[in-house]
Amino acid sequence: MTFEPRPRSDGAARARNDRENLLDELHRIDERLRRRVIGTDRVAFHDGSDAYDAASMAIVRLHGVLERREHAFLLEAVREVELRAIGTIRNIVSHGGYRSMDDESFWETVTGQLPELLQRLLERAASWPAPR
After folding, report:
1. Could you tell me the pTM of the whole model?
2. What phi, psi does 63 have (nearest 5°)?
3. Where are the domains positioned within the chain?
4. Could you tell me the CA-to-CA distances from 14 to 21, 40, 80, 87 in Å, in that order?
5. Could you say which DSSP state residue 10 is in?
6. Strand, helix or coil at 3?
7. What is the pLDDT along the chain (132 residues), one digit of tens a residue?
8. CA-to-CA distance for 72 and 11, rounded, in angstroms?
9. Please, what's the b/e burial string for 39-61 (b: 16 or more CB within 10 A of its CB; e: otherwise)?
10. Are 121 and 74 in contact (CB under 8 A)?
């Protein structure tokens, strides 16, 4: 059995799907934080906890969104220091072991700063003109 990739749609349908997929992904990241991280006990937020793992996945997925060339317009809503921090945290959670995470800073980032950043990104993505 061989894998046959599905051909991408063209023109307006492709751009509409891309926009919907982007909005869906940002909403999923936001939902993951709100349901599984924000409101949990800080003491229980540590490497291996469900909240920590959910926060780590949110960072990995957000970094994936921001590094895509077609999403470059989103970078207008992200400060350089935020982009560097997301990249650094993503590297730490993806390549654990080469550097330890400051759990207090991670907690403050994912519960305080990341939700506000996600709202800016959602607003920017929603204002992306839908193709006709």
Report:
1. 0.86
2. -60, -40
3. 15-126
4. 10, 39, 30, 28
5. -
6. coil
7. 787 776 666 777 877 888 899 999 999 999 999 999 999 999 999 988 999 999 999 999 999 999 999 999 999 999 999 999 999 999 998 887 545 788 899 999 999 999 999 999 999 999 876 554
8. 19
9. ebeeeebeeebebbebbbbbbbb
10. yes
